[in-house]
Batch of 2 targets.
Target 1
Amino acid sequence: MLRVEGLGIRFGGLHAVKDVTATIPAGQITAIIGPNGAGKSTFFNLISGFYQPTTGRIIFQGQDITRLKTHEVVASGMARTFQTTTIYKELSVLENAMIGHRVRTRAGLLDALLRTGRERRDEQESRDAAMTALTRVGIAAHAARPAGAMTQEGQKRVGIAMALASNPKLLLLDEPAAGMNPEETVSLMALIRELVAGGLTVILVEHKMSLVMSLADHILVLHHGQKISEGVPAQVSRDPAVIEAYLGSHAHGGQMGQATAASAGETPHA
Ligand SMILES: Nc1ncnc2c1ncn2[C@@H]1O[C@H](COP(=O)(O)OP(=O)(O)O)[C@@H](O)[C@H]1O
Ligand SMILES: [Mg+2]
């Protein structure tokens, strides 16, 4: 589905992502994990065309997309959500999904907002794509509501619908459970599983280790921009390099410790 070879980007002297080679399997959920600042969001920005890599190649469905612009990447079948919610709260849920369709498949936001002649002709197509996306994420009944009136989890679904409106084969989710309570997290996990059961491939970045361990089929671990481990959850959670990376990180050491212990059936260490 997706292969990156020697992928890297430097910001000044900082290698935010360095020499990452990996293959993301189709029809599965792949999680990108790693301590804060590991390069996870940057990795997403590279594969979705928001950043141009300094080194390496990105192959998506057999096509070299390394130099494509973001809307060309979208046209090739990949869509993403952002770490911070980027929905338009005063617009309706349906209008948000329509903007998702237009911005991602046409030239840009300005066109979408100004409703040029071409945009008007495309309105019905956008509306249909948007309604299909809302149905897929289970919020079609809320189409006419202002997006800002939805719950936090509902707003996440709007964000996912915006990405799905371009009908991608691969969906990238940056911290989908951020700001969610446990109940909402469970509900979002179920949604992600449903989407994958329907044929979508998902790559997600997530800090909540317990979530990743039970949700992902395949895990790729970044640390200081480099891939330090890859495999199924049980393998990765036992990998000494991963445990060390997380324990070395004050912010997330505890979370990884719990996840490791839970998946290994052990008592959490002190
Ligand atoms: N546009 C940028 N310019 C300069 N440095 C950046 C930029 N984006 C990310 N970085 C740096 O790259 C590193 C990785 O960041 P990021 O990918 O956001 O990490 P993560 O998502 O894993 O927490 C961090 O040190 C961050 O400060
Ligand atoms: Mg990030």
Note: The radius of gyration is 19 Å.
Target 2
Amino acid sequence: MHLRWITAVLLVILLTTVPLDAQKRRKGEKKKESEAITAAPKPEVKQEGSGRRSGRHTTTTTTTTPSTTTVAVPEEEVEEEIQITNESRSPVNVCPPEMKPQEGKILPCTCRDELDENALMVECVALTSAQQMHKIFNSLLLGKRIDALEVRNSTLGPLMARQTAQAYVGNLLMRGNEITELVYDTFQGTDQNVGRLDLSSNQLSRVNFSMFDSFTQLQVLNLGENQLTNIEDAGQAPSLRVLYLYSNKIDTIAPKAFGRLGGLEYLDLRWNNLQVLAPGAFHVSSDRWQLRLRANQLSSLEQAFSEDNMPYLIDLSLNSIASLTDNIYGPLIDSAILEGSKFYVAGNPIVCDCSLSWLIKNARLLSIVVGARCDGDGSPIADLGLEDFRKCPPPRKWKSPLDRALAEAKDVDMN
Ligand SMILES: *[C@@H]1O[C@H](CO)[C@@H](O)[C@H](O)[C@H]1NC(C)=O
Ligand SMILES: *[C@@H]1O[C@H](CO)[C@@H](O)[C@H](O)[C@H]1NC(C)=O
Ligand SMILES: *[C@@H]1O[C@H](CO)[C@@H](O)[C@H](O)[C@H]1NC(C)=O
């Protein structure tokens, strides 16, 4: 019984996150891609028990999903970990009889409770309005503990206040339901319980992220494939680790927009319209994070980062970067080296002139630069010989933080 439930949860999660066309991306490396990609490597998710009721017994399961990254990104085994808490739930946590699957009858929302004791799974299909859903949750499902709620193939429009009422929903999956707007208290009542919230493939043009500040358990927020244009302030959801904003129309990020997300590990801004970044756009407070900027129109990352907190992995493929200047890209590459990661820069029109000599002359840095090619003849920069740069003035003395650290260690040794 138990295993079947776990399998069902995993299935839901996989179905909602695994990309439809990982293969396609693999082939599309050379040209600008515009198709919407639905997912990215998924860091593990720990779903913890409700804040209100303490768990007694925890069951953990682990699975491995195939890598869903782009060409330039190494194949990574990503573990998805889900903890299901066997809590002392109220004995009445069973489906309302009128929502149980019935032979020959199509219900707007179906509830299953035979999967595991006390675990409820609700699936709503082809709802025609947010009101319809609101009504079901505010009557039949009031106070239920729902491990996963999935709404699909529906036309919801603007969501309402307390859309999911006072239900305890762990995974809230509402992908592709023509949602046009969230009000501030849309999820009030469930906010302490949601671990994963998927609102991708909807029509949101604005989100006030501070509405998630009270989501104490929220680890993964997916707002990919919406109509967002501008990230003013991504709020401070305390547990948020993964923020998907891919395939929107984002062209503006305010300084420190992500600066209050203390747990942020993965920021996905692929397939947006970024051209110029405000100073401090990527001032991030968490200490180990990665950034996906593939397929924007960035020509420079000048002043975007705080120098002491670079991402350890950055994907800059398919942008408009012509000049790999030492002051910006040196520290980024260095940060990648420190974490055994790489620097992805394929599909940029890099000018192979003397401005590149700092990199060409540094084999250590050059060795982790992936996909860099010269504008014009398209030759890989790794194939340029030192000969080509013989006549260049010597590169500005640039010492990477890593070099500095090594030098300091040496000094200490000698003293
Ligand atoms: C869940 O907890 C109850 C008691 O609280 C126990 O009887 C039951 O065996 C537990 N189930 C699992 C799968 O551990
Ligand atoms: C989606 O909903 C429409 C009606 O809104 C229905 O005609 C169609 O069959 C549904 N498709 C699926 C896959 O459920
Ligand atoms: C977000 O909502 C909060 C609370 O209603 C409000 O104080 C704040 O000004 C809103 N922020 C934006 C950018 O609209």
Note: The radius of gyration is 24 Å.
